[in-house]
Amino acid sequence: MQPQLIYDVGVNDGTDTSYYLSRGFRVVGIECSPVMVEELRDRFKDEIAAGRLVLLNVGVASHSGEMEFWMSDRHEWSSFDREIASRNGTPHRAVMVQTRHFSEILAEQGVPYFCKIDIEGHDRLCLEGMTKDTAPPYISIELNHRSGDKDIELLRDLGYQRFKIVSQVTLAQPNKLITTLGYALPIRWARLLQRRVRSTFGVERVGSWNFKFGSSGAFAEDTPGKWHDVKWALQRWKFLHDLDSRYSAKGLGDWFD
């Protein structure tokens, strides 16, 4: 394990990478979109030249080779899954991209201290490319409605024993009562409640860094709240999944890492 190394899998616009670099870490950024990679190479040209950032323009897949990738006009929704890239009728188009198995990247770049994974419905592919020996000390994935429980169990099988589930809207661990109120209230009041939770219980700032909406936020021991066991994680995710399914028409747009 390399203690000064972080992986940003799904770099998107580079918000998270920028934060990791500001903390003095070296970063391996993995971004499938060729459009975003060109922008990232320009934005981080100094860091790339200095060797502080390695930017890989590949998609993580079950095999190394080439695959069809769906480019969404909302870049953060671009995905190998056309349904994700086209949600809400968003314009999208197909491009062919290079793919790599995650185990190959780990062998080439080294095991990081922390790995952030957000690749629109395919985070599990990174987990499947790890072993207990190559799993980093800290890891973050976006919980998927189709496989969130199975992903938590896979994390357990990789050796992880302590968990947090953090709202990416409030940047706080979701309290059952407050979360239920957030879905049940009229949308205007729900937004006000979300902002209040973020400012009171979330981690909006680490040092001088302010986390803008859409960033993954703090990592490792800077994340909010207590650590919990896998039983708690599975139960809390079931509660959040069922609640969101029941009130999906509300459109509050919360998601959880």
The largest sheet is: 5 strands, parallel
The mean pLDDT is 85
Q: How many H/I helical runs?
A: 10
Helix and strand composition category: alpha/beta
> What fraction strand?
15-25%
How many beta-strand segments?
Answer: 10
Percentage of residues assigned to helices: 25-40%
Please characterize this protein's 3D structure:
This protein is of the alpha/beta class. The chain has helices spanning 15-22, 34-43, 45-49, 82-85, 102-109, 123-128, 148-157, 176-184, 187-201, 230-246; strands at residues 2-9, 26-30, 53-56, 59-60, 65-72, 92-100, 112-117, 138-141, 205-206, 209-210. The strands form 3 sheets. Strands 3-2-1-7-8 form a 5-stranded parallel sheet. The protein has a 3-stranded mixed sheet with strand order 4-6-5. Helix 7 packs antiparallel against helix 10. The longest helix is centred in the C-terminal third of the chain and has 17 residues, at 230-246. The radius of gyration is 18 Å and the shape is globular. The mean pLDDT is 85.
Summarize it.
This protein is an alpha/beta fold. It is built from 10 helices and 10 strands.
Descriptors for this entry?
257 residues; alpha/beta; three-stranded mixed sheet
Question: Could you outline the blueprint of secondary structure elements for this entry?
Answer:
Layout: E1 2-9, H1 15-22, E2 26-30, H2 34-43, H3 45-49, E3 53-56, E4 59-60, E5 65-72, H4 82-85, E6 92-100, H5 102-109, E7 112-117, H6 123-128, E8 138-141, H7 148-157, H8 176-184, H9 187-201, E9 205-206, E10 209-210, H10 230-246
Parallel strand pairs: 1-2, 1-7, 2-3, 4-6, 7-8
Antiparallel strand pairs: 5-6, 9-10
Helix pairs in contact: 7-10, 8-9, 8-10
